[in-house]
Amino acid sequence: MSDIVLFVDGSVDPLFQIGMGAYLVLPITYLETPLSCIKKTELQARVRVQRFMNTSSTHLEIQSVLWALEEIQNELSDLELSKIVLVSDSQAVTGLLARRPGLEAENFLTKKKHQPLQYAALYRNFYKLHDRLGFEVFKVKGHSNVSVKDSLQLIFSVVDREARRSLKKWRAVKYPLSQKTGVSQAHE
């Protein structure tokens, strides 16, 4: 059995409503690696990225976590995993476990109008995966200063940069004029 740490982040272009989710899975023992021995290029090569359409910042963060957890669940059997630590800088993600009792008590409906919450389906999927996988959630600071990073923060910054780099690359290919002129193209 192995314990793993799952780093998840996303980068969204609100104008085009496109986002790139990124994740990296490492053995939890990797966190004991001294900063000087962590090779960013090796980590970058292991980051997985996926594009999400019609999304927003909060939506993307939760979508990315669900995608990463589902990938892990599909790739590894229950016998192979004993512990998963999910690392995110998203308050929407890191606060979900604490919000669960209230959301379930209200049946995922708004208090005033009793309408379904905007992300109710995503929340339900998150909780199903949590019940199945039993992961822990750990919040890190996003976009922190390089000089104050520990291994956890350094590794997370690699995932963050890969998500942003992938989004920038996609925009440059899909809408090359917007990169040069700063003028946005119309949605497809």
What does this structure look like?
The chain has 188 residues and is an alpha/beta fold. It has one domain (2-181): Nucleotidyltransferase, domain 5 (2-Layer Sandwich), CATH 3.30.420. Helices cover 45% and strands 21% of the residues. The chain has 7 helices and 5 strands. The protein has helices at residues 40-46, 57-75, 91-94, 96-105, 120-133, 151-174, 176-181, and strands spanning 2-13, 18-27, 48-53, 81-88, 136-139. The chain has a 5-stranded mixed β-sheet, sandwiched between helices. A hairpin with a 4-residue loop joins strand 1 (2-13) and strand 2 (18-27). Helix 2 packs parallel to helix 5 (120-133). The longest helix is centred in the last third of the chain and has 24 residues, at 151-174. The chain is globular and about 55 Å long. The protein starts with a strand and ends in a 7-residue tail after the last helix.
Largest sheet: 5 strands, mixed
Helix/strand-derived category reads alpha/beta
Integer tally of domains: 1
Helicity, as a percent range: 40-55%
Strand content: 15-25%
Question: How much is the average pLDDT?
Answer: 89
Poorly predicted ranges: 181-188
Write the CATH architecture name. 2-Layer Sandwich
Q: What is the CATH topology assignment? A: Nucleotidyltransferase, domain 5
Biggest sheet, strands in spatial order?
3-2-1-4-5
Rg from Cα = 18 Å
Number of strands: 5
Total number of helical segments?
7
Per CATH, the class reads Alpha Beta
- Give the SSE string: EEHEHEHHHEHH
